[in-house]
Amino acid sequence: MIIRQLSVTSECAPFVKTGGLADVVGALAHVLKEHDVESRVLLPLYRQISHLSAGAKEVRDVGSKFGGPVRILSTQASGIDLLLIDAPHLYDRPGQIYLNEAGADWTDNHLRFGLLSWLGAEIGRLGVDGWRPDVIHAHDWQAGLTPVYARQNEDAAPPSILTIHNIAFQGNFPATTMGDLGLDPKGFTQDGFEYFGQISFLKGGLVQADQITTVSPTYARELLTPDFGMGLEGVLAARHTDFSGILNGIDTTVWDPATDPVLAQTYSSRTLAKKAVNKGALLDRFGLAPDPSAPLFSVISRLSEQKGLDLALLALPAILDQGARFVLLGSGAPELEGGFRDLAHRYPDHVGVEIGFDEKLAHQFQAGADATLVPSRFEPCGLTQLCAMRYGTLPIVSRTGGLADTVIDANAAALAAECATGFQFAPTSVDGLGEALDRAMEVFGDKKAWQRMQRNAMKHPVGWDHSAKRLVDIYKAVQRR
Questions:
Q1: Distances from the Cα of 85 to the Cαs of 27, 43, 65, 224, 251, in angstroms?
Q2: 437 and 474, same structural domain?
C-alpha cells in the first residue's frame, strides 16, 4: 500500500541548506520511494531558490495570508516533488533564510514559519491538486506549529510526526504574536504551546504531534535529562511512549568516493592507495608542506562552542608541534574564526583555513584528510562523521548523541578485534580531545592498523536503509491509531 507523506520543512538539499536538516530531508525524499512512500516536500520559495518557480504549476491561490498574497506552486527538481510557498512579502529578501544581512534573526520569523506550519496543516486537511497526505512529517521548530494547526481542525487532519533535529533551537516568540499567527488562545497553557510566557513553536509541536522522533537513539535518551533537554525534558518525558530516536543517514549516491566528480582522484576501499592523490591536492590548495609521514586532520563545521571548536583550538598545537597538518572549512563565531586564522599564521606550513562553506570543497576535505574532528559538546546525530567514514577518513568524536552511536572507538579491544572505525573521547574537554588526537597519531604510525580502520569505516553502514524502514513503520502505526 502506498503511503502519501508530506514533509514540512524550512530547508531541503540540494536546493537550500544551512545544516544537516536539509541533507536529511533531501535524502529521505529519495529513499522513501523505495519503501512505497509517495513523498512531497513543502518548502518556502526563498529568493535563493526563486529559479525553481520557472515552469512550476500554480496549484492553489491561498489569497492574502500572514500579511500578503500566498500561492502554492508544484514542481519537480532533482527527483524531488516540491510544493513551493510563493509568498514574496515573507521569503523574497536578501540575507540568509533565517538571518538578515546584519546577521540577526528576521523580526517576522514567526510569520515566515507560522505560514509554513499553517500550510502544512491545510494541505493535510484539504489536500492540493487532487493529492492529500496520509501523514504529515514536520521537521524542527520551523514546522513545529503544524501539529498545532492540525489539531485546531482535528476532524479532518491526518496524523502528524515531529522530528527534533536540534532541540537548542525552539522558535520562541512573544505571546503578543498569537493573534497574528491565528492560534487558538485556549492552547496558550502549560499543557499547550505556552513556554515561560512565550509561544514556543517546538513545544507546541511536541505536545500535539501524534509521534515524536529525534535523530539518534543516544540523543533521544539525552533529551530526557536536564543537561540536554534545554528546558523541554519534562515535556518529552510526558510523551516518552510516543518518542523514539531513529539514526540519521546520508545519501550514499551523493557521498561516494568511487564516483564523486569533484575529487582529484576517485577511489574505493579496494583502491585505498589512490586516496593519497586527494591528500596531495588538499595540501597544495592551502600551500602546506607535504610529508607522507604526517597525518592531515580536518574540520568541516559551523564554528561554535556547541561544536567544541574552542577545544580544538587549544588541543591542536600539541600535534602540530609533532608535525601534523590541519585544515578547516567553516564559519561562525567571530572569535573562533579569528582563532583559527591566528593558528594558520602561527603554523603557516602546517595549517590551512577557509572561512565560509563550499559543498565541493567539503567533499574534497573528506577525501583528502586522514582524520576529521567532531568534538561537539552535544550532537543530535552528526552527518560529518558519516561522510568521513564513507571516504575512509577516520572521525575523532566526543562520546555524545549520534556520534556515540555511529563511531566504534579504537580502544585496545576494538583494535584487537579489528572492528574500530574511529576515535571517541570523554569527557568533552581539551584533555579528552588531546588524548584522542594522541591515540590517532599513534595508530597513524602503524600503517596496517590505520588502513584496516579505514576499510572498516568505509564498509560501515551509513545510509538510510534500516532507519527508513523504522520511519515507515511509524507512519503506518500513527495511521492505524
A1: 21, 6, 12, 35, 26
A2: no
**Do 401 and 372 share a structural domain?**
yes
**Which pLDDT belongs to residue 301?**
96
Reported pTM: 0.93
Residue of 234, 148, 132, 165 whose CA lies nearest to 21: 165
Give the CATH number, domain containing residue 436: 3.40.50.2000
Model pLDDT for residues 272-285, shown as the tens digit of each residue: 999 999 999 999 99
For 237-309, strand residue ranges (E) read: 243-245, 296-303
CA-closest candidate to residue 374, choices 323, 318, 425 = 425
Q: Is the peptide bond before 94 cis (omega within 30 degrees of 0)?
A: no
User: Considering the chain, what is the average pLDDT of its residues?
Assistant: 96
Report pLDDT for 365: 98
Query: In this structure, how many other beta carbons lie within 10 angstroms of the beta carbon of residue 105?
Result: 11
Contacts of 406 (CB under 8 A, 6+ apart): 216, 247, 381, 382, 385, 386, 389, 460, 462
Same domain flag for 157 and 302 = no
Cα-Cα-Cα-Cα dihedral sign, residues 214, 217, 220, 226: negative
Residue 166 included in any domain = yes
Closest among 271, 242, 15, 8 to 135, alpha carbons compared: 8
Same domain, 426 and 442: yes
Which of 291, 300, 312 shows the shortest CA–CA distance to 444?
A: 291
Nearest 5°: the CA angle 464, 158, 122 is 105
Q: Which three cell numbers stand for residue 115?
A: 505560514
Residue 155 has a pLDDT of 65
What distance in Å separates the CA atoms of residue 475 and residue 325, rounded to the nearest whole number?
Answer: 47
User: For residue 170, how many other CB atoms are within 10 A of its CB?
Assistant: 22
- Can you tell me whether residue 189 is helix, strand or coil? coil
Whether the per-residue pLDDT at 95 is higher than 90: the answer is no
Could you list the residue range(s) of the whole structural domain that residue 141 is in? 3-249+465-480
φ, ψ dihedrals at 430, nearest 5°: -60, -45
- Closest of 376, 390, 381, 385 to residue 425, by C-alpha: 376
For 410, list phi and psi in degrees, rounded to 5: -85, 60
> Would you say 17 is a known binding-site residue?
yes
Q: Look-up: residue for cell 591515540? A: 439
Q: For 283-316, give one letter per residue: b (16+ CB within 10 A) or e.
A: bebbebeeeeebbbbbbbbebeeebbbbbbbebb
Domain-embedded: residue 394: yes
Residues 237 and 383 in one domain: no
Q: Please calculate the CA angle 155-159-162 and round it to the nearest 5 degrees.
A: 135
Domain shared by 153 and 19, yes or no: yes
Q: Tell me: the pLDDT tens digits for 209-266?
A: 999 999 999 999 999 999 999 999 999 999 999 999 999 999 999 999 999 999 999 9
